[in-house]
Design a protein that fits this description.
Order of helices and strands: HHHHH
Largest sheet: none
Mean pLDDT: 84
Distance between the termini: 23 Å
Number of helices: 5
Shape: elongated
């Protein structure tokens, strides 16, 4: 499961290289961040710093959360 705090730190400090996008598996967006990172990456980091963990999970961990719910239901 991807961690919001890790993503935020990568966006703030490694956003120029697109490290935050590579972390969540968005390779194409990560490659786009390399030329555009100076402009957009700090804003992405601040956005996720101020957002909730639930919002982050809904965006980047949705499939994993659904699988965990299904596994829980199967085990009951």
């Amino acid at each position: 499961m991807k961690n919001k705090n890790t993503f935020t730190l990568l966006a703030i400090f490694g956003g120029v290289l697109g490290l935050h996008r590579f972390y969540v598996g968005q390779v194409f967006k990560g490659l786009l961040c390399i030329p555009l990172g100076l402009v957009f990456a700090p804003f992405t980091g601040v956005y996720w710093l101020l957002s909730s963990t639930e919002a982050f999970d809904n965006r980047y961990n949705k499939q994993r959360m659904q699988r965990e719910i299904l596994e829980t239901l199967k085990n009951k």
